[in-house]
Design brief:
heterodimer; A: mainly beta; 10-stranded antiparallel β-sheet; 4-stranded antiparallel β-sheet; 20 strands; elongated; B: alpha+beta; 3-stranded antiparallel β-sheet; two-stranded antiparallel sheet; 2 helices
């Protein structure tokens, strides 16, 4: 009687349950007929001797690797019996989100997107290429580098407050210039600016001529411009300054508001400080060493 | 491998209308790649402002005229500054700004 459809199968064939190979005394790797998941998933015999998994051999997928090359005895002297075969592997669909309560990774966790979380911890090696928005780790230097030069860090607050923003740091040099000196023997200065605070140090030396008060100009930043906000900076050392003028006891320095120079003043007992005069040079040249901090705008 | 030295204006900032903050960068490059950068700063203001003083009993005091300080405002020479800096100074230091600067300086405490 005619029928529609395939002819019914009358024979079912199972896949091979064993593979055989011939050793040659040098080859250590052989390709299995089936993929297996671990060394214990196969039974291996060489010259009739059962081999110990993970010691005499190892397996990765369909690659069987012997620790020592099997002998070249004639015929098929290597037998592999499949105890558990890898039928299929399961992978997470690449287009689907992975949701889990916890996760442990023995290798690297790599993302081309954004990794977010409440806290990150490490083993001391640190996080690499951490992409805080707008900041990078400056390549191999691992310095935190903002994309925007005016970016900073708020300290001591949990809301954006301008007066708590630290957004400037700079180190550099400046050239002090003593008034009345046409050619300085020494004029060297260094500064560090943190926020709006400038720490400046300098050594200036030269032959003073002419008349009038002595000032040192060339500060790296102008001072705060608030009216009556005079600031002081320390004259830590002075040399060849004639002191026997009035009741002079020392040399001080004052920076007026919005100024890049400071006046050298005579400190007097029971009197106002007044301007140190160029005529008070005693000796070949005046030396002034100054150092201190002042506030900018 | 070749070392080159480049000096350029790194930053020009105008503070309070008249103070021009200039940062000069010295850059050392090795085969075109920057290996070091040092910074130098100076400030330019439209005038160097001083008032006249005189000595009285060994103390320098302001030399007043009609009860007022006698100020001298000497214009700052910017001819040796970088062209960019000169352009900024000339643009920022308008006649009105110069007038404001003089007024500001003359309100500061006398010594």
């Amino acid at each position: 009687m005619p029928y529609i459809g395939n002819i019914a199968a009358n024979r079912f064939v199972a896949s091979k349950s064993a593979s055989v190979f011939s050793g040659d005394g040098s080859e250590t790797q052989f390709t299995l007929d089936h993929s297996v998941g671990s060394d214990e998933d196969i039974l291996v015999s060489v010259d009739g001797v059962i081999q110990e998994p993970s010691v005499a051999f190892s397996v990765s997928g369909t690659t069987l690797t012997f620790t020592a090359a099997p002998s070249n005895n004639s015929g098929n002297n290597i037998f592999v019996y499949y105890l558990f075969r890898t039928i299929a592997t399961v992978s997470h669909p690449s287009t689907s989100a992975l949701n889990a309560t916890t996760g442990t990774f023995s290798g690297n966790l790599t993302s081309s997107g954004t990794i977010t979380g409440n806290a990150f911890s490490g083993n001391g090696a640190g996080l690499s290429n951490v992409g805080i928005t707008g900041w990078s780790n400056n390549g191999s230097n691992n310095d935190l580098l903002p994309a925007n030069a005016s970016a900073g860090i708020y300290l001591g607050v949990n809301s954006a407050t301008a007066s708590n923003l630290l957004d400037d740091y700079e180190e550099g040099s400046w050239t002090p210039s003593l008034s009345g000196v046409s050619s300085h023997s020494v004029a060297v200065g260094r500064y560090v600016k943190i926020g709006n605070t400038v720490t400046a140090h300098a050594n200036v030396n030269g032959v003073v001529s002419g008349s009038g008060s002595m000032t040192v100009s060339g500060l790296p930043f102008s001072s705060n411009s608030t009216t009556n906000m005079q600031q002081s900076i320390t004259v830590g050392f002075n040399s060849h300054v004639f002191y026997s003028s009035g009741s002079m006891q020392g040399v001080q320095a004052r920076i007026n508001p919005d100024s890049s120079a400071f006046s050298l003043l005579r400190y007097r007992h029971g009197n106002n400080g007044d301007g140190l005069q160029r005529s008070q040079q005693s000796g070949t040249a005046v030396t002034i060493l100054i150092g201190g901090t002042y506030i900018t705008d | 491998m070749s070392l080159t030295k480049e000096i350029k204006i790194g930053k020009i900032e105008i503070i309070n209308n008249w103070s021009i903050h200039v940062r000069t960068d010295t850059i050392i490059k090795e085969s075109g790649v920057e290996v070091s950068r040092s910074l130098h700063r100076h400030v330019l203001q439209p005038f160097a402002s001083v008032y006249k003083t005189k000595e009285a009993d060994g103390v320098m005091v302001p030399d007043l005229k009609n009860g007022k300080l006698q100020w001298t405002h000497t214009a700052t020479d910017i001819s040796k500054e970088d062209a960019q800096v000169q352009a900024i100074c000339n643009a920022a230091w308008t006649d009105n700004v110069k007038k404001e600067f003089k007024t500001f300086k003359e309100t500061q405490e006398a010594v």
